[in-house]
Amino acid sequence: MSTFRLDIQQVTAGNRTAWLIEDQSVPVVSIAWGWKGGAALDTDATAGALSMAASLLTEGAGPLDNVAFADALRDEAIGLGFDAQRDGFDGSLRALRPALPEAVRLANLAMRSPRLDPAAVQRVRARAVAGARAQLETPRGQVGRAFWAAAYPNHPAGRPTNGTVETLSALPEDAIRAAIARQIRADGLVVAAAGAITADELARVIPALFEGLPEGAPEEAPPLPAFTAFGRRVIEVASPQSAIVFGQAGLAVSDPDWETAQVVLRVLAGGGFSSRLMEAVRVQRGLAYGIGAGLDTLFGQGVIVGSSATDNARVGETLSVTRDEWARMANSGPTREELDDAVAFLTGNLPLQFTDSRRIAGTLIALRRNNRPIGWLNERAERLRALTPEATAAVARKLLKPDQLAVAIAGRPEGV
């Protein structure tokens, strides 16, 4: 049996470290970086400020207005972007090797000297408001918002990362600048790179990429409280179908049973047509086109979140079947055959995550954020293949709590 192994190098540049997977087969370099903090540091009144900031960073910087900045990226085929998440803020670039110095210069300029020209702010605000408004026009958009608000009613995780129509419409430019100032700092960084760059070259690039940023690290976001098992919430929406989001507390990323929990969820809800939920809900009963669930990671914690959509008249039966399968897995865990199939998929699928330098750099960032050791992925297949049905069943009992499964429904559901 062949074993897929990664050669991850740790690169040191001053007081910063980066992980690197070097690959000289294609002359492309991807670099990803990120900080803790994120949209959780917005206030309730300024929700969406960091999300707007992420969009505005590439809308002109330093002496370059938005058109000149876009032209500079296009002329060198550079990809540059920023993303605000609930619990962090990320940046990334991708460039051909000869264009890497220009990519680093433009990325640094965007972080250090964003323009926030009034016309750009107005354009980005209009787009953000339109997106927030459109989300509320669909059952799917409304149910997601309701689920997180009920699960974390007194924490920033419970509000939309991108803000609401109300907050975005009233958001002053000063709030956007303040979000940038508190988030984009010289310290508190995790960095990763992949592609046609050596360790020595990366060590020289890192100082240039972050040159001139304000000293210090972003503030710590408030810790995530326990998931609120809120039971059932129904949002009345005039629609022939109901959108459903269901979930419960998961495991901390640091929990030693984290990987085993992923195997359990793969069998229960994450394996497409091979999952128990898809088999029971769609194949056997035709209740919904699709259904699935997995671990959503935020603030170092895992939350099990699933979704489906079905005719209003079938909501009650769909939820009943879902709870039954949840309980069946909690009571007995996966069978030997299910366990072997899930492990074969998870080990066999791993190389596909390392076929593109952008995905590689992003994966390395995720590993670093989760405090994984540098050899963690290389040992993963061996750990998964060592799992037994008994050990997996014990984790299923620990993980899955049918009586704590919270459900949000947007539509006009029947039978609930």
Tags for this entry?
single chain, 15 helices, Cytochrome Bc1 Complex, Chain A, domain 1, five-stranded mixed beta sheet, 416 residues, 20% strand
What would your notes on this structure say?
The termini are far apart. The chain has 416 residues and is α+β, with helices and mostly antiparallel strands. It is globular, with a radius of gyration of 23 Å. The chain contains 15 helices and eleven strands. Helix content is 42%, strand content 20%.
In short:
The chain is of the alpha+beta class. 42% of the residues lie in helices and 20% in strands.
CATH architecture descriptor name of the largest domain: 2-Layer Sandwich
Mean pLDDT across every amino acid position: 95
What is the name of the CATH class of the largest domain?
Answer: Alpha Beta
Q: Give the CATH H-level superfamily of the largest domain.
A: Metalloenzyme, LuxS/M16 peptidase-like
Please state the overall shape, judged from the principal axes of the Cα atoms: globular
Strand content: 15-25%
Radius of gyration, in angstroms, nearest whole number? 23 Å
The CATH topology of the largest domain is given as Cytochrome Bc1 Complex, Chain A, domain 1
Helical content class? 40-55%
User: Order of strands in the sheet with the most strands?
Assistant: 1-2-6-3-5-4
The biggest sheet amounts to: 6 strands, mixed
Q: Point out poorly predicted stretches.
A: none
Distance from first to last alpha carbon: 50 Å
Number of helix segments? Answer: 15
Helix/strand/pairing class, anyone? alpha+beta
Q: Into how many domains do the coordinates divide? A: 2
State the order of secondary-structure elements, H for helix, E for strand: EEEHHEEHHHHHEHEEHHEEHHHHHE
What's the total number of strands? Answer: 11
